[in-house]
Amino acid sequence: MITLLLSTAFLALAFLFKKPFIRLLVKSPIDNIPGPTPESFWKGVFRKVFNPNAQEFLEEIARTYGSVIKIQSFLGDNWLYIFDPVALYNIVEQNVFEETDGFIEGNKLAFGEGLLGEQHRKQRKMLNPVFSIAHMRGMVPIFYDVAEKLRGTLLKKVQDGPQEIDVLSWMSRTSLELIGQSGIGYSFDDFTEEHPPHEYATSYKQYAPAAYKFVFIRNYLLSTLVKIGSPRFRRSVVDMLPGEDVRHLKNIINIMHDTSVMIYKSKRKAIAQGDAALADQIGRGKDIMSILMGANMSASAQDSLTEDEVIAQISTLTAAATDTTSSALARVLHLLAQNPDAQEKPRREISEAKETMDQFGYDQLDSLPYLDAICRETLRVYPPVYMVPKTARRDTILPFSNPIKGLDGSEIREIPIPAGTNVVVAIAAANCNPELWGPDSYEWKPERWLKSLPEAVSQARIPGVYSNLMSFLGGGRACIGFKFSLIEMKVILAVLIESFRLSLSDQDIHWQLAEVSSPTVCEGGVSRSQLPLLIQRV
């Protein structure tokens, strides 16, 4: 057993040191790009960049070094941290840069062949129709059903006066139920205190921080480790690894996979029984997975998905939609608690609009200007995902909007990027670039969206799919469900803002960056993912 582990470790370390060894022999154009001083050749600034408390450091290097920054990673491996608009366009639109090998393999291990890697284009083609505006209009009543259940539960909790409530927990449960009913036709939660959250809800909430502990292994070793031996051999190696963190992550993944298989089998059985059986299910056969599975059955052999790929969609869609949406909702509610005036404006807006209708449809929700401004500004300043690593799959040239000065004093307008080079799409930095948004770019000001945006923003032609922002990325890897997420947010916010007034509690809240940003509270020296806010009826 020990020999097996040592052999595997030796092969992984041999690969780990291969790239730095080559770097010592071959100079790279990236060497001439300015960036923060590494802690050492061994560590670089890896621990400062990929760190739950990295926000201040990332903002500092953006202000100091501009929109193209060299960040030295482990063993002298140079990455580029980028928020230059032209460079971003070439990264997301030119089909040269893909997710890193470690990211793809990590998600395969956790979710299977989802909307990542080689299967991406085939699967996205099949999923595009179910994220259309026409289909989402039909989803709004489902969103309201979930929102009203949440509202009813919170009303009971505050019936005797203001109460401190962990808003993150309820936003997580709500986001999971939203994608559960509308996405996979399954209910995870009845929103009662008597019934604790579904074990899937608990697992997915723990997944991001648990996986983030292995970010070094994912970035540098995982793509090699998955090529060593057979799947059975690799599972045996994982089973032998010591440490509670490994066992915890494995248990989380097992629960998510088992739940996805259970949902898939139930859905497959209903489809086989016909439309009447589907109509009896949650989602009434109009949920994303029912439509996907129906389309898959009639697709050609070339375009159809395997059973494992369909099961992976359940985990991928659920995890992606739940984590990011709950983070965004929690951030909005925290900001509204911090800014009482900004909380009152959408409340008046919603109240006035409700004089002519009881429940908003898709178009009515989209026509509430201040609610829309709050969502846009929150996603601009505080995107749930702050940065995304990418890898160049072939040699390319990366041009810049404006020339930068190299360490040797030369003017650099473009840079050759060798295949295998890692870059970081700096989402938050791109959204808050003061050269585009002005000196108050890092400040949360919803009112900026109620007037014309700065001319520099429109001229920059940011390649994001949403509102001159990179929050949902752009190009072929843009978030396929971004409109779905936005309408979910607006339904939940419209219901909560109309019914409840939020204020800050006495507890100190600190937002951490993991795979997805999350609010934390320190209790007894231990940080826990929570957002305690005081809630009372309006």
Number of strands: 13
Coarse shape: globular
The oligomeric state is: single chain
Low-confidence stretches: none
Rg of Cα set: 24 Å
Mean pLDDT: 86
Structural class: alpha+beta
**CA-CA gap between termini:** 63 Å
What share of residues are in beta strands?
5-15%
Largest sheet: 5 strands, mixed
Number of helices: 23
Task: Record the strand order, biggest sheet.
Answer: 1-2-8-5-3
Percentage of helical residues?
A: 40-55%
Briefly summarize what is shown:
By secondary structure, the protein is an alpha+beta fold. It has helices at residues 2-25, 46-49, 55-65, 85-93, 101-111, 120-127, 133-157, 167-183, 199-212, 215-220, 222-225, 231-240, 244-273, 275-279, 288-298, 307-338, 340-353, 362-366, 369-381, 427-431, 434-437, 455-460, 482-499, and strands spanning 68-72, 78-82, 97-99, 163-166, 387-392, 396-405, 411-417, 422-426, 500-504, 510-512, 518-523, 526-529, 532-537.
Question: What would you say this structure looks like, in words?
Answer:
Pfam families: p450 (PF00067). This is Cytochrome P450. It is found in: Membrane. Its cofactor is heme. Heme binds at residue 479. With 538 residues, the protein is α+β, with helices and mostly antiparallel strands. Helix content is 53%, strand content 13%. The chain contains 23 helices and 13 strands. It has helices spanning 2-25, 46-49, 55-65, 85-93, 101-111, 120-127, 133-157, 167-183, 199-212, 215-220, 222-225, 231-240, 244-273, 275-279, 288-298, 307-338, 340-353, 362-366, 369-381, 427-431, 434-437, 455-460, 482-499; strands at 68-72, 78-82, 97-99, 163-166, 387-392, 396-405, 411-417, 422-426, 500-504, 510-512, 518-523, 526-529, 532-537. The strands form 4 sheets. The chain has a 5-stranded mixed sheet, sandwiched between helices. It has a 3-stranded antiparallel sheet with strand order 4-13-9. Strand 1 and strand 2 form a beta hairpin. Helix 16 (307-338) crosses helix 19 (369-381). It is globular. 43% of the residues are buried. The mean pLDDT is 86.
